[in-house]
Structures
1.
Amino acid sequence: MSKKLLSGLSGILVALIIGAIVMLGQGYNPIATYGALFKYSWGGLYPLATMLKNSVPLVLTGLSASVAFASGPVNLGQPGQFLIGALFATVGGLYLDLPPVLMVPALLLLSMLGGALWSGVAALLRRLFNMDEFITTLMLNMIADFFTYWAISYPLFDRTAFSPMTPAINRAGWMPVIGQFNTSVLVMVIAFVVILFVFNRWTAGYEWRLTGQNSIFARIGGIDINKNYVTVMLVTGALAGLAGGLVLMAGPHRFLKGLGANYAWDGVMIAVVANNGLIATLLYGLFFSTLQTGALGMELITAVPSEFIQVLQAVTVLVIVAGRETIDIIVDRSVRRRKVRERTA
Amino acid sequence: MDNLIEMRDIVKVFPPHVVALDRVTVSFKPGEIHSIVGENGAGKSTLMKVLYGLEHRDAGEIIYRGQPVAFRNPGEAIEAGIGMVHQEILLINEYKVWENVVLGQEPVNWFGKIDENRARQQVQQKIEEFQFNLNPDAVVDEISIAARQKVEILKLLYRNVSVLIMDEPTAVLTPQEIPQLFNELRRLRDNGHTILFISHHLEEVLELSDRITVMRRGKLIDTVPAAETNKAELARMMVGRDVLFTSHREERKAGEPVLDIRGLTLADANQQPRLQDIELQVRSGEIVGVAGVEGNGQFELVNTIMGLTRPTSGQILVAGEDLTGADILTRRRKIAFVPQDRGRMGASVSASITENAMMTHHRLNGRFTEWKGLLLNFRKARQYTDELVERFSVSLGSQAQPFKSLSGGNQQKLILGRELMLDSPFVLLDQPTRGLDVGSIEYVHSQILKMRENGRAVLLFSADLEELLRLADRIVVMFRGRMVADLPVETTNVEEIGYLMLEGKHRNYEQEAS
C-alpha cells in the first residue's frame, strides 16, 4: 500500500513538473498557474464542494471499470450505462410524484436499474451467443448515445427549448444541497464504501477477485464463474448508471444533449491509472476532478487555456502507468545485482 | 581439440529469489554431441537460452570460436552459427515445407519477388545433403510431428548454423521416431556440426552422446564422457544421492469402492474418441496409479472426473453418489484435487497465501464464513491458514505475501494441504511431484501414503513409473483413450508397464519367438 502511494504521489509530482516545463516553454508562469488551479479546486468551501461534486461521475464510472476489470469482464460500456441510467432517472423524475424522501432514492434506484439493464444486455449476449463483452459493450455505447438523443429530441422533448433536451424533472427528485455541498457526494461515498466492503469482505467479492486473477483456478475451486460474470456485469452497470442519475439529479436536473460529456471514458482511464485498485480509483478520481475543476479558475486568472489540463491528464496517465512498471524493473534489477554479487564474491 | 564454446562462471537470477544458474562453467567441442541432463528446474534450458541470446546472463562470459560474445537476441546467435530447436514447434501450418524453411531469408530475383525455383532447389539440396527424407512441397499441416521437427532443424541448416541446440526433442516423438532422429543427429555430427542436446531421459542420453554434462539446481555437477558412465551414476549426480526405489508400504486391506467409473466414453468435437469405455474402481485405503504416455487420455479423464468436460456416456460415482452431471462445487464435496499445473489450476499466483488457502473451503467448510456464507471472516481464515501451514510444514514469510513468493515445494505443500483439509473421501492427484526437488518429492510421497493409511481412495496420475511403483497398490495403463491393463504392483515391473504404454497390449513372447 505505502509503495503504491509513493509511486502514485511521485508520479503526480513528475507529471506536474513536466507540465511546468511545457508551460515555461510556452512562456507561462507555472507557479501562478498551479496556484490558480488548486485555489479554484481546494481553496475554500465552495471550490472544494464543486470539486467533490465534479468527482462523482469520475469516481463512480472509475469504480465500475475497476471492479469489472479486476473481476474479469472487460466492461467498457460505462458511457452507455451512464446515459441509460440518466434516462431512467429522467423518465422517473418526469412522471413520478413522490415526496423527496422517497423520490430521491426511487430515482437513484431507477438509474441503477437502467445501467444494469444496459450491461445486462451485453451479459446476455455473452451467455447466449458467446459474444465478447469487450466489443458488445462498445457497440451498446453507440446505441445508447443515439437512443437517448432520439428520446430527448422526440418523446421527451421540452417544447419550449431550442435544442434537444427534456423538461426539468420534478423538484422532489433534485439532489438536496446542504450548505455548499451537494448530497450527490454523500451517495458516492456510500456507494464507494459498500463496493469496497463487498469486494474485500464478502464471499462474493472474494470469488470475483479470484476469478479475475485466474478463472480456471476459480472454476476448479468450485466457483460458479458464469453466475459471477453476470453479477459483476450487472453491478458495474448499476454503478455507471448511478453516476448518470446523480449527474442529472445534482446538476442540470434535465437530460440535455451532451450530458455524459467524457465522464465515463475518464472513469475508465482512472481505473487503468489506479491499476483497478478501489481506493486508488477514489483518490485518482479526486485528483482528476481537481484538475478539471481547477481548469476553469486557471483560465480565468492566467492566460493558460483550459485545454492544457488535457495535456496534464495525459502526462499523468503516462507517467504513472509507465512508472509502475519501471519501479518493478528497478527493484528486480537491484535484487539481481545483489544475488550476483553474493555468487561471485 | 580446442573448445568451440566456453561458458565461464555464468550466473542468471530470476527475481525475486530464483538463482537459475549459479556460476556455471562448461565447454563444448566442435563436432560432438553433448547432452545436458538434469531434473526439471535444474537450469539446463536456461543455460542454453543464455548461450542462444534468449536470456541475458547477469555475470560470466561466453567465448565462441576464441572471441568473447554476448548475443542480444537469437538472430545474432543464428548469424554467428548457433541455432536452437525449441520443444514447441513454431512453423506456419498452412505453408509448404520449403516456404517455411526459407521464410525470413528468401532468395529473391530482380523485382524483390521470391525466386521460388531457386528457393525450392536450395531446400531440396539441403534435404538430400542430410538425407532428411522430406518432401519440400508437402504442407506442414499434413506432415507428422517428427517431420515438422526436421523442418525446424532444416530451417537452421539452411542458415548455415554449425551449433544446434535441441531442447528435449524426443518429448514430442513416438518411440519409433526417436532412433531416426538420433541417426540424423549423428549424421550431422559426422558432418562437423556440434549438437547440444537437452534431456532428462538417461537411456537416450547414454545412447546418443559423446559427452554428458549433469546439472542440479542451477549448478553444474560434472561433465563426463558417455562411454565412462552409466545410468545409476548419472541419476546419483542428478538428484544428489543414491536413488533407491524401495517401497515402504504397510500391508493393508482396501475397503469399500469410493470411486466407481462405469463405461466412461468421451468423443471430441470431431467425433474422435478420447476416452473409450473406461471402467475403474478405487477403494478406500487404496492408491491406484495411472500410467501412460502423455496424450493417451489422462488429461481428458482428469477433466471428466472434475467436471470440466461432460462425458458422452458412462457414469462417475464417488462414495455412492452419481456425479456424472453434477456441477463442480458438488463434486468438490467428495473430491480433493491436486492439479498438475500449480500456477494455472492449483492457485492464483498473485493472490495472497491466505486467499489461496481459502479456495473451495470458503464454500464447503464454514470455519471462516458468517451470515450464512455471505461474509468472510479474514481473522478466522488466517487462523485456518496457520493451521494448514503448521500441519503441512509450509515455510513462508507472511500469509499476506503473494503465492508466487513461495518456492515450488512450498507451493505444492500448500495446495496439497488445502485439498487434504477438505476431508473428502476421494483424492485425485495429477503429477503431484512434477518439477519438485527431491526433498519435497519425499514429503509429498509420505503424505500420499498417509492418505492411504487414513482410508482415503487415491487416484494418482504420474509420468514417473518409479513413483507409481513405489506408491500404488494397483497400476492401470492408458493407451489411446482405453484402459489396457490393471496390474497389481507386486507382480509387475517397469519393463512390463513400459511395453504396455507404448504398444497398448501385453508382450507376446510366444509370437516373438516364432
2.
Amino acid sequence: MTFASPFRGDVPRSWFGPLRHRCLAAYDRVEQLPRGPERRASWAAYALVTYGDKLIDTDGIDGATAEVAAAAYGLAAGCLEHGAVPGTMPHWSAGTRSEEQLRAMHETLADLNTFLAYDARDTSDTRVAARLAAIDARLSTVARLWVPRPTPELRGGIAGALVAGLDEAYVLGLDLAQPAPSSR
Amino acid sequence: MGLFRPARTVTAPNGIVWELYVSKTALPPWREGEAGASLGVPNDLWLVFAPFTALWSAIIVPLFRFVALLPIAVVRGRRSRAVRIEAVVSYPAREVLLWTTTDSFLEGVLDEIASGLAEGKVVQPSAAVYSGREEG
C-alpha cells in the first residue's frame, strides 16, 4: 500500500516549529528519570526528536524528508504526552536516499550510539555489549561505503546499514531504560 | 583495472569457473524497443515492414541509446570513487553477480569475494554492497 505524500516541493523549516515544540522536553527528561516506563517513553521521544532535528537541519527539506521528520516529531509527542511508544523508528518509503538524508540518518545514529554507550557504561551484561558492538559495526560499514558522490548501489548499502542501525539503537535504548536486565 | 581482463579467476568446488571483473563504469543497459511501435507502422503493412521494424527496435535504437549514454557513464565512473566488481560465469549458463565497493577497499573485497566463490559461497563483505544477479 502506498500513500500520497501531503508535502509538495520543499518544506520550510519553520513549518515544523509547533510540532517540534511539543517534543523538546525529551532532551532533558531522558537523563533525569529513573529506569522504568517513563524513562522508556522519554528515551523513545529523545531518539525520535533527535532524528527529526537532524532531518530538518538543512536548507531545503524535500517532501520525503519532511514526511519522515513529521512522523518522528508526531511519534515523539505521543511518547511524551501519552506514553505511546512505537516499536521502531519511522521508515522511509521506497526509493534511493539522498546524501542529505543519509547524512541526517548517520548523525542520528552516531548521537544515539554515544548516548547508549554512556548509558550502558556500568552494565556487565555481555548481551548489551554485543548489541552495542553490532551498532558500531553498522557505523563502520557506513564509514567504509561513504565516498563523495556515492552511486545508487552504495547509497542503498549505506541506507540499509543506517536503517538497521537506527532500529537496533532505538530498541536497545528502550531495553536499557527498563529496570529489569533480564529483559535485555 | 581493465574492463576486458579479469582481475581474478576462481574455480568453485563444482568446477564452475568465475571471472571477477573490476570497473568504474556501469555500462548503459541494452534496452530493446517495442517492434513496430517506434516507427508507427499500420497494422495492414506489418508483414512488409516486420524485418525493418525488428532491426530498428532490436539493434538500431538500442545501439544509438547505448552510444549516446556511454560517455555519460564513463565520466560518471571517473568522477566517483565507487568500483563495480562483476563475477561472471559463462558456462554452462551465463550468470553475473554484482558488488559495489570503494577504491580504498577494492583489494580486500576482491579477496573476500574470490575466497567465497572458491568455497562455493556468495559472500557479502562489509565494505561492499552486494546487488545480486545483474539483469540486462
